[in-house]
Amino acid sequence: MKYLLAVLLPVALSGCMLELLTTTAIQGELAAKNAQAGAAALNHVKEGQARTQAEYAIRAYQAEKGSYPASLSVLVPEFLPALPKHPDGSPYGYDATSGRLLDSPAAQTIPFTAEDGQNLKRIEDAIFAYWQATSNYPPTLEALQPAYLSQVPALSSGGAFVYDPQTGAVYHPNDLQPAAAAARRAGGGGGAGVRHRLRGNPGAERHRTRVVPRRALVAVVVAL
């Protein structure tokens, strides 16, 4: 009997361990599925809130101004605190003729001209000058008038440049369409978003890096 128990006991224990591992694996899989479902539900709520807020802002602008906004950036900050984005960070599109919010930027591209490149640089330089004077980005491009720009330049096509007051970035509308922007840059067309010139090196190429306000740098130093 002793020998029989010695044989059967390890077998029984191994069976229990196998059952325990199987149960743990099932529980882990269920927990992962629940987490995914929870994240999807949260993203759905965020998506609905962003869309509703943006559509309400468009209607409010139209009711007050008598026309649809030329771009979503015109709504910031008076009608929207920031440009609306999907939960994954991608931007919404917008049809200025109908005032309709789109799931993604329209497929058609707007010609990027030499004049657009010059005006983009003027706006970026004005934003940089504003930041130097205030340590903040302007809330709107119109805030640059008249101290930094006599008038905010428009696109050669008649539309407006896109501006994000949270980052100080200004874009040609095509830069919200990665494929079109990449093709234009490959062809030497420029217009790749905010490109504050590297001060102290006039020949340096402008870049996309966001300029960090002085008080933010002080906060980092204090934290260290």
Descriptive overview:
The protein has 224 residues and is mostly helical. 46% of the residues lie in helices and 5% in strands. Strands 1-2 form a two-stranded antiparallel ribbon. Strands 3-4 form a two-stranded antiparallel ribbon. The longest helix has 64 residues, at 2-65. It is elongated, with a radius of gyration of 27 Å. Residues 178-223 have low confidence and may be disordered.
Overview features:
224 residues, mainly alpha, two-stranded antiparallel sheet, two-stranded antiparallel ribbon, 5% strand
Strand coverage percent: 5-15%
What topology, given as strand order, has the largest sheet? 1-2
H/E series: HEEHEEHH
Unreliable stretches (pLDDT < 50, length at least 5) are 178-223
Mean pLDDT: 74
* Major beta-sheet overview: 2 strands, antiparallel
Count, helices: 4
Number of DSSP-assigned strands: 4
Shape: elongated
Helix residue percentage: 40-55%
Radius of gyration: 27 Å
User: What is the terminal separation in angstroms?
Assistant: 70 Å
Determine the structural class based on helices, strands and strand pairing.
mainly alpha
